Amino acid sequence: MAGELKRTELYQWHVDHGGRMVPFAGWEMPVQYPTGPIEEHHITRRAAGLFDIDHMGQIVVNGADAEAYLNRLVTWDIRSMAENEAHYALMCYDNGGIVDDVFIYRLPDRWFVVVNASNLDKDVAWMQQHMDNFDVTVTDVSLETYMMALQGPQAIPLLQRLCNADLDAVPRFTAIE
After folding, report:
1. Phi, psi values for residue 125, rounded to 5°
2. CA distance 63 to 35
3. Beta carbons of 72 and 115 less than 8 angstroms apart
């Protein structure tokens, strides 16, 4: 692989806790820990697991035409999305082939698109190629933000201890800031 691998902010934590680090989409990421993937799966299913997903691409779309622009690029009709709602969608080529699968978040002042790490450069290029006739900006903020995923039945009670928002009142596929 050409070039130096990028590391997330949790890289040293992964190493210190026995994470077996491997190259993935230009990043050095943990593939497993000493407990093994089966036990990690069971722990997440029984309680909660914290996943370092910062290697995923994170793109902000702004502008007066952001909704119409994104609606042209993906299969989900995002015009029906409420503020702070999130949806899974496919970003497609003009011939219907899939560019990437993405998560789109409609935030109060911008749209936030999460793409696969291995497709980030391709996705940003595709999005920028289709900005003509739209009043939009497309900005890769992947290196300016951090993403983790807390998953499992105990995720909300664990996270609730760290924030003031009533997380039980936050529906699935909804974002809060």
Report:
1. -60, -45
2. 47
3. no
